[in-house]
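Re-run with default settings, no changes from the original entry. Doing this only to confirm the output is reproducible before filing.
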Amino acid sequence: MDFYAGHAMIDRKVHLLKGVISLPMQEMAKRRGFTNFTIVPEQKDPDPDFTTVPFPNPENPKAFEIAEKLGKEKGAEVLIATDPDSDRMAIEIRNSEGGYTALNGNQTGALIHFLRRF
């Protein structure tokens, strides 16, 4: 199953910041029928030293650098990041310039509400 919002297919790229959610996220995606779903390889396994980010906070734009690079290579429309213990998350969406724009909390909530219908 591919996931659509309007007429645009959303490629899901998940950036986990060396967190504990990697395996559960993959299982959730599989159970929900997501077929176009990629986890950033360099950040899928726990790393207590957080060697791929300057600070393990998904609200920090620098935390998305590796995910943005992969997202541009793969044409991802949505990037999702969680912190190491997965109690915080952030979302970036592709913008008209081909880069990514971070959503604030209100925008993220509206997107989740909208996407629940699918």
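The first helix runs from residue 22 to 32. The longest strand covers residues 89-94.
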